[in-house]
Each structure stands twice: as C-alpha cells, then as structure tokens.
C-alpha cells in the first residue's frame, strides 16, 4: 500500500513513451496486487483521499484476518497507487501503465464518474476486472462493459428522495404537488448532470415545475446569479450538486445572503463537512448519501457500520464519509469474488463478480448485467441541530424531515432564545 513518488512516476511515463520496459511492481507469490489511480491532488483531492483511505482500511482488515484463500493458499492484498491529479486523460494513462507495465492483478476504481468514464475503456480493452465505488453516472452502465462493477447506486438517485419528500409534505398540507417549484444548480460534470436528470424525472412524475435550471460556475466559487433568481422566483426547494466544493458553496452563500427556501438539498454534505464548517447555518439541509453509520448492515470483516466507523476514525482521525465506505466495500467485493473463483484468472474472477450476492457493512451488493448494484438503497438525511438524521427511506429513518425549514429571522430568534 504505497504511493508512487512523482519523480519515479515521471521517469516511468517517460520510459513508456520511449518504448523502454520498466520493471513490474506487481504481486509476489503470496500477494494479490490491486492497482488504483486516485485523485490525491486537484479538485477531487478531498474525495480522492477518502477513496484511498477506504481502500487501505479494507486491505488492512482483510490481511489482518488472514487474507484471501485461493486454492488452499492464503494471499495478502496490497494496493499500488498513482495520482491522477483529478484529470481524466491522466487517469486513463496511469491505469494503462498499471495493467500493461506494472502487471497488477486487478484494478480498483478512481474517484468520480468522469475519471471512471475515462478508465473503463482501458480496463475493458485489457479484459481487466475493475470494481469501483465512486463512479455513479448512469451512462457508465449503458456502454455494454463486461469488466466494470460498481457497488454504489447511480447518481440520478442522489436527490430523487428529496423530490419525494416534497410531494409527501405537499399532500400532507393539502397542497397539489403540481404547484411545487424547484430550483436546480449543478456543476457541469457527468455526475451532477445525472443528479439533475433524476430530479427532473421525478419532478415531472409529480407535475412539479423546474423554475431555475442553472450550471454552477466552473470554479465553484460564486453562485450569486442563481441565488438572485431564487430570491425572485421563491421556489419551494433549491437542489445543488457540485461535489464537496459545491456543498460548501451552497451552504455558505445561502447563509451569507440569507436566501430563504423551504428546502435546501445537496450532495456530498458529509465529505464537505458542512456541520463542522458552518454549524447552525447547515441546519435543515437535506443530503443525499450512499451510506450512513446508523445502518444495521454487517459483514465478517468489520462487523456493523458503527464498528467500521470506529475503526476508520481511529486509523485516519476523521469520520468516514460514504465515499470511504463504498471504497472499502469495493475491496471486500473483490476479496469475496476471488475467493469464490478459487483462482487469480481474470475471466474467472470477472464471472465470479457477476454472480456476487454479498452483504457488507455498507449494504447488500448484487450486480445486474450492466455491472451496477441493484440491491442497495440510497439514504437521505437532514441536518437537525447540527447532527445528521436519516429521514428516508422510512425503513432506516431515525426521524422525520423538518419541512418547511424555518425562515432566517425565525432561526436567529430561536438561536437567541437557546442562548439565554
């Protein structure tokens, strides 16, 4: 489990361009080597670190429990990393190096749909199984890939539940859902576009109106233009998707400009650490998530979700966001499939992956023919008193959604009363 130094990487890439063979860094006789290009620098570096930490914790847990038994022999896992610098072209280049020159046994996915989209054609070309937990764009699963498997739900589901909550609350108040107005602001990337499409599809199902449909600025530093429209049009909900930087931008500027919407819904709240950064200003935000520590899923490697969270925090000194949890689950899925295949043959492991029916601390994993996980549900939580409270799906709910959110003047009054 080590990161290749930049000077070694530069030399290796230069040699590859010159056609010079470099020594492989793949498995020894008792080690299975996984390769991963992850975003350790660039705009995805926060979630790239979450991804790497999730992989590393899984490897440690599996190795500590004796590794993976294949044909009666125990193998330990290790991961070889390269930094893709949050760049799609670099990610594809590095994964090709991992496969063709470093001769890794199998590939773990990068962070983000964009990077996964660039890498999937490479792993497919080499008939190399890849399990990933951070590429959620639906389009990935429409390409006919046979070697791509994803443990997470597709990104169109991240904020669909917020639309359902809007409809339920409207009906409970005796209001026709067709009168509901929604504002959308998203980053111009594959993931967020798919989040947006999911919102629009469910809004149409209820006859709701999308009154603002904006792209966030590329630098994700200012959404004043969108918020000006929100102030004028007074929608019932503002839904924002821009990874962790978009979540920080949304909470910060909505609070600074005192923009009132009855519902604010976002992606990437936990990895953006909105409660730690903004305190009470993050209250009432609804957040789509792939996983939550309150879930009662369990597996032999970590026990339940709570125990996983404790192990993760002890190892890395921060609470695990779902990006880390789904990365850990990706390694677990590989370990399970390799064990069932009883072989390191790539096609045999690929076939075992296709037949996966596994419970993990992260949730159930079962792949359809396209490689996506069809067994797990998304989670919707709301920040209430600076704590994340699961409000959907109802099976896992810890509490009920607070809707409409209090107005800013009401929040300030309540805050003054609570301090007395």
What does the model show?
The chain is of the alpha/beta class and 420 residues long. It folds into two domains: 2-153 and 294-366, Rossmann fold (3-Layer(aba) Sandwich), CATH 3.40.50.2300; 157-289 and 385-419, Response regulator (Rossmann fold, 3-Layer(aba) Sandwich). The chain is 41% helix and 20% strand. It contains 14 helices and 18 strands. Strands 1, 2, 3, 4, 5, 6 and 7 form a seven-stranded mixed beta sheet that branches. Helix 2 (45-64) crosses helix 12, helix 5 runs parallel beside helix 6 and helix 12 (322-341) crosses helix 13. It is elongated, with a radius of gyration of 22 Å. The N and C termini lie far apart (52 Å).
Assembly state of the chains shown: single chain
Spans where pLDDT lies below 50 across 5 or more residues: 1-27
CATH architecture of the largest domain: 3-Layer(aba) Sandwich
CATH level 4 superfamily of the largest domain: Response regulator
The number of helical runs is 14
| Count of spatially separate domains | 2
Inertia-based shape = elongated
Largest sheet: 7 strands, mixed
Total number of strands: 18
By CATH, the topology of the largest domain is: Rossmann fold
User: Whole-number average pLDDT?
Assistant: 92
Global structural class: alpha/beta
The Rg value, from CA coordinates, equals 22 Å
CATH class of the largest domain reads Alpha Beta
The portion of residues assigned to helices is 40-55%
* Amino- and carboxy-terminal Cα gap: 52 Å
Please state roughly what percent of the residues sit in beta strands, choosing from under 5%, 5-15%, 15-25%, 25-35%, 35-45% or over 45%: 15-25%
């Amino acid at each position: 489990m080590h990161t290749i130094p930049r000077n070694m990487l530069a030399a290796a890439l230069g040699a590859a361009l010159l056609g010079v063979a470099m020594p492989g860094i793949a498995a020894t006789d008792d080690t299975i080597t996984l390769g991963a290009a992850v975003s350790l620098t660039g705009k995805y570096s926060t979630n790239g670190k979450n991804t790497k930490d999730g992989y590393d914790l899984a490897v440690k847990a599996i190795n500590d429990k004796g590794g993976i038994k294949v044909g009666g022999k125990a193998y330990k896992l290790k991961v070889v990393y390269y930094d893709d610098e949050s760049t799609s072209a670099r990610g594809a280049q590095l994964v090709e190096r991992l496969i063709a020159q470093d001769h890794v046994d199998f590939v773990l996915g990068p962070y983000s749909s964009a990077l996964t989209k660039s890498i999937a054609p490479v792993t497919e070309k080499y008939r190399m199984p890849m399990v990933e937990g951070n590429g959620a764009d639906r389009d990935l699963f429409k390409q006919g890939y046979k070697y791509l498997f994803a443990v997470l739900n597709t990104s169109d589901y991240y904020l669909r539940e917020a639309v359902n909550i809007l409809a339920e609350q409207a009906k409970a108040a005796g209001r026709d859902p067709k009168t509901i107005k929604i504002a959308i602001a998203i980053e111009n990337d594959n993931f967020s576009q798919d989040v947006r499409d999911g919102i629009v599809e469910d809004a149409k199902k209820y006859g709701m109106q999308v009154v603002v449909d904006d792209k966030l600025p590329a630098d994700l530093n200012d959404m004043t233009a969108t918020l000006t429209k929100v102030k004028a049009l007074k929608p019932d909900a503002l839904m924002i998707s821009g990874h962790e930087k978009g979540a920080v931008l949304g909470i910060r500027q909505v609070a600074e400009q005192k923009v009132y919407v009855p519902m604010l819904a976002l992606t990437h709240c936990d990895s953006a650490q909105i409660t730690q950064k903004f305190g009470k200003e993050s209250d009432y935000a609804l957040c789509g998530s792939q996983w939550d520590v309150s879930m009662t899923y369990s597996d032999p490697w970590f026990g339940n979700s709570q125990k996983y969270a404790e192990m993760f925090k002890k190892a890395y000194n921060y609470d695990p966001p779902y990006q880390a949890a789904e990365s850990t689950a990706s390694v677990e899925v590989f370990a399970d499939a390799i064990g069932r295949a009883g072989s390191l043959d790539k096609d045999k492991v690929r076939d075992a992956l296709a037949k996966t029916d596994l419970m993990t601390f992260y949730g159930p994993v079962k792949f359809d023919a396209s490689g996506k996980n069809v067994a797990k549900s998304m989670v919707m939580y709301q920040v209430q008193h600076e704590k994340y409270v699961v409000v959907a799906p109802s099976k896992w709910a810890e509490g009920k959604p607070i809707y409409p959110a209090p107005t800013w003047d009401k929040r300030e009054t309540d805050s003054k009363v609570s301090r007395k």
